[in-house]
Design brief:
Layout (H helix, E strand, L loop, with lengths): L1 E8 L16 H13 L6 E2 L8 E10 L6 H11 L4 E9 L11 E10 L12 E3 L5 H11 L1 E4 L15 E4 L1 E7 L2 E8 L6 H13 L7 H8 L14 E7 L1
Parallel strand pairs: 3-11, 5-6
Antiparallel strand pairs: 1-3, 1-4, 2-3, 5-10, 5-11, 7-8, 9-10
Helix pairs in contact: 1-2, 3-4
Amino acid sequence: MRFAMIIEYDGTDYSGWQRQKNGISVQQRIEEALEKLLMKKITIVGSGRTDKGVHAEGQVAHFDAETDLSEFKIKGSLNFFLPEDIKIREIKRVADDFHAQFDAKSKVYVYNTYISRVKSPLKSRYYVQIIPPLDIELMRECAKKIVGKHDFSSFSVKNGDSPSTTVRLISRLEIIEKGDELTFEVEGPGFLYKMVRSIVGTLIWIGRGKLSPDCIEKMFDSGDRALGGKTLAANGLVLKKVKY
């Protein structure tokens, strides 16, 4: 039997989603809880990795298990065993050929910031501070240039992985204002390493007048990461939803 879960977690104290040789991961904690419940080792497969310090509201994962327990009982028991910063929001039986990673059509990430000259102690765990002034309308105009299919090598950070292609599709990029909060919502089928954080950092640098609006075209043309803005911190990023 195959089960799918929607998982919410605060990634602050974890080395990321995926199991690591050094450091505790979200995947590890969930697999440990499943082992306590089902009395055998279970491997879960997530829709994708989130990096160290990144949060999730709607991560999706699947696992296989033969059990007579109801979905309600599995969910309640897992949440009992899991720490307070990881919880299962939903769990349901799915088709045996469902795959959390390969069946995903798109992912929605949000990056949370607030505009203030004074750092907020209450927001600092989940938001990143932006010092004003900030030209938000200019940022929105520049965001339109990012939507579509491009080579995003200049909006990513190199790591040990070598993707077969650095071409990605951004289907939606919205900048939402609410009081002093500024949220960037980005949707696409897949993302390069630190791609969302690099996109948001570049837009903010443009909004603050530290970069020219034409830097986006130059980045796409050259593939030069150095032409863009700062790669922002992990704590502002949330995997909001995975669409199937």
